[in-house]
Prior knowledge:
The complex is a heterodimer of chains A (872) and B (256).
Chain A: H1 10-20, H2 22-61, E1 66-70, E2 78-79, H3 81-87, E3 92-103, E4 127-132, H4 137-140, E5 145-148, E6 157-161, H5 162-168, E7 175-180, E8 183-193, E9 206-210, H6 211-217, E10 223-224, E11 226-231, H7 233-236, H8 239-253, E12 257-260, H9 267-305, H10 307-315, H11 320-361, H12 372-399, H13 402-407, H14 419-438, H15 446-484, H16 486-494, H17 499-537, E13 542-550, H18 554-559, E14 564-577, E15 591-597, H19 599-605, H20 617-625, E16 629-633, H21 634-640, E17 647-652, E18 655-665, E19 674-678, H22 679-686, E20 691-698, H23 704-719, E21 722-725, H24 726-769, H25 771-779, H26 784-825, H27 835-861, H28 865-870
Chain B: E1 15-26, E2 29-41, E3 46-50, H1 57-64, E4 72-77, E5 80-81, H2 87-97, E6 98-101, H3 113-123, H4 132-141, H5 157-169, E7 175-179, H6 187-204, E8 208-211, H7 215-218, E9 223-228, E10 231-237, H8 245-255
Parallel strand pairs in B: 3-8, 3-9, 6-7, 7-8
Antiparallel strand pairs in B: 1-2, 1-4, 4-5, 9-10
Amino acid sequence: MFGSLPLLTPLVLALRNMRVRWMRTALTCLGIVLGVAVILAIAITNESTLRSLRSVFDEASGRASLVVLPTAGDGEGLDETAAARAAGQPGVVTAAPTVIGTTLLARDVESWQFAVSLSGQAVGSSLQILGVDPELDPLVRQYALAGGRWLQGEAYEAVLSETYAGDKDLRVGDDLVIVAAGGQERLRIVGLVRREGAGLLNDGQVAFVPLPVAQDLFGRAGYLDEISIVAALEVANAPAALEALKDRLGERLGRGYDVTYPAERGRLVTQMLSTYQQGLSFFSVIALFVGAFLIYNAFTMTILERTRELGLLRALGMSSGQVLGLVLTEAVTLAVLGSALGLGFGMALARGLIAMLGVVLASDLSAFSVPPGGLLQSLLVGGLVTVGSALAPAAQAARTSPLEALRTAGAQAAGRPRRPAWLVGGALIFVAWAALYALPVRPEAGFAVGGLAILLLLLGATLMVPAVVGLAERLVRPAAVLAFGAEGVLGSGNVRRATGRTALTVAALLVGIAMVIATSSLSGAFTHDLTSWVETALGGDLYVRSPQPMREQFERQLAALPGVEGITKIRYFAVRAAASALASGADGDTSLIYAAIDPATYQSVGEFQFAANQGDPRANWARFARGDALFISTVVADRYQVQQGDTLRLVTRRGEHDFYVAAVAVDFTGQGYIVTGHWDDMRRWFAQSGVDRFTIGVAPGYTSQQVAETIEARYQAARNVSVETTEDFKQKITGLSAQSFRLFDVLGLIGLVVAALGVINTLMMNVLERQREIGSLRSLGLTRWQITKMVLAEAGTLGLIGGAFGLAFGYVLSQVFVDAVNAMVGYDLQYIFIPAPFLAGAGLALGVSQVAALYPAWKAAGVNIVEAIKHE
Amino acid sequence: MEFNEGGGNSVMPVLQAENVQKSYRMGELTVSALAGVSLVVQKGEFVAVMGPSGSGKSTLLHLLGGLDGPSEGEITLAGQPLSKLSDNQITIVRRRKVGFIFQFYNLLPTLNAEENVGLPLLIDGQSLAPHRAKIAALLERVGLADRKHHRPDQLSGGQQQRVAIARAFVNDPEIVLADEPTGNLDSKTGTAILALLRRTCDELGATIVMVTHDPRAASYANRVIFLKDGQLARELSNSAPGHNTQAIMDVMAGLE
């Protein structure tokens, strides 16, 4: 007989309780799911994006252990004989030379467009041509032939990536007609490679030709762009031996040659991406907070609701330890369930985020990798926060004396605000402020400290809420009465009954709204500065570009055209700052973009937007024009701790050289990793030539369109140039920035969903707890619709209070975000008040609270009066 | 000397229940809570409903107040047959014609005594301002003139029940329904509450139906109705309210 009794273990009791209170179980679970999912999704997104971008660089080097590059970026390149010299070194198995050129199909010239992306890569319809040694290169890079054959000898033939061939409808046996230094050239297509290994280069827009052919095509006879070194296995696998080989090669090859590890080439792109990723990581900190919060909220309520039941169990002889065990078992069960679902949802969310990021970065982000650290982190949070959140209510439940619990009708939630709570809250806010503004923080700790400070701010604000909720309700009540009449009085007053619960709900709304406002404000500040930079720095009316550097003499020909009033040239190339120039403590990324300009003509079409306190612009220009000088971006100034009047040491073709900093300027090119130098310095120190872009000012009486057409008519076919109006380019840039912030909007929405869950949770709890009261109000003559209005009024009051707190906190958080981004990235953004996000925030607070109240209101309206008033 | 206005028809009863039945489904079983009760309450009457646990007295009160609908039979409250009214219309009848007094007072914790008394008016969409004097008079009547700004948690049980009584009378109801109004009070406080109800009935001409299991409480009524197993078992008239407790106890003893 007794044997057939089910074992009432804590697990069974917990499971039963979860099943009976399925609604609450679902809400709590959803909180855990969201928390775990957001953290994991962000970790996956960061890791996958990095991996995708890195893989492009990895594919470029294949099995190479080392890469030899010319010291000052591209340009003349390496001497052809260097490959043989490198190959002769002990420990080197293969030294494969490569010449890289960018071109496009002759038939695409008219439709070619210069495209920009967040990572600074120029993407679009350009075709990358790799001149390789047909014998050696397959030892370095992986080629998977999909058709035809591999290159043989030195004939004018090409192996194309399957992707490109598919896009352009080209087949083996066709001719590839491209634009080259000397005009159009024909290459016979002899083979296709799959989209893997080397076929992934340049996003699949790639063709391979014999080395001498490439040198011919691009006028690079006798020169190479890079040499991939495959080291002997025993060297490649021993870091010390490889480092020794790297040094030996560098020594043997001499000045003008840089021997690096393949991974370092991706640095510039990945370091630009890191800004974005830090933004995402901030969100994961906030996601952690809101997720934890929802879980805590739901758990506290489920315990409050069951005070009586737990009291009964205590009265029946359950020890407080057993009660604690019961509640914790429930927590662990929920944690396991919620985390498992959260992992699934997180991966789905990550796919969405990566797809969005792919659009923003204009790259095909095909990698999807789950970082073990992120997985562990999200699971830890799911588990620890759930169990942690359950601890306090569980302990409270265990402490409750049986008598007291049985006597309580439903439960009396925490009554008056406890003094220490708001004191602690105030203290936390102060600590957060101090961490953000008063204490010197080393840059590498910036993210950790910033994230923690924001957590403390949120927590502090939450603890402050109970102390002021009474006052806030009184202030808000007239609005509730205005909107809901007499029911407004009843509903509004209800929020003062369980201050603890109200505080949690208000805080959930606060966090959601503040997040929306802070991200919008950050995006606003960024867009504002970007726009003003775009307006000043991107001067001129037309841009003339070509897939290959243009000759300098072209400037005179363009200047002579009718309607061209001013013209200036610009050239971008990669440089490195000397490692010794880095501020102490910063990591070793030293890649920068060098923009060479001609001060004599630059100001005829454009201006520089100097940072604050840079003195007289004319004096800055005068100093710059004397040469050996730079305008550096605010980002570079911050990173290398250099100011106007200091010097910045760059690695040049002639060794390291100090350049005078003539001024610090706002510049978002390449995410701010940019210095601007004199055209003559470029030639002298970096041996670069050619023009990437001509900027043209259109004379009065002509339209941009007219001049663009003139240039296109005359030079498009002959010189492969494309003309774009500055307006179009500006729109591209601002569009890109708007797009990149859309990702944050998605995360802000998740915050709002969490807030809505908080409101539903609270109101459901309130409705459940006040069954008898609702019953007696119904018996006193309140109709179902009036009950509905009463619950909506309560939600509206919560929304108003949460919204008001959210607006205030959002205002503070906006400035913290802007300051944090400035501190971390080195921008010089100014916080500007934009009303739109605040209005949206207020609207969202009300909207979310009303929508979230619908279900609880419906439940309340449906209360059975007789059942309810019997309920004691 | 009674004077009938217009025509010679008799005075319409405030409350009339005709063969009221109520059954509940509990899983597979159908439980009959009321098995056909008829009852007429005239204006100015104080009727007590007694009976052992499970006799259906609370169910009857709920049906009389329109809180629940009967399975069979008809209830006519203030001239309106409830079965013909919608949920909303019944709610309005409750709001304007019925006063409720509960065992656990059921005051709103967020409102003070004055506001709690005025709650039915508030619910009716009226402003409290024009009714201040009336509310003050009611609070005076229940002896809480000096407590009108106190919240329920600042009042004793007896004081809370006094507020609840004042609330029940604020809308000049046709009838007041009281469910064990002294069930949660000590005997001394209970007695005071009963005396208050009796006095209100006498002085204001109010009509009260009170459910109780306490013979001493029932003795304050003019008429005591005894229920057993969902049916009317006996009826007792009481010409001397406040006395005759023993007679009621005897009837109860016979029922149990």
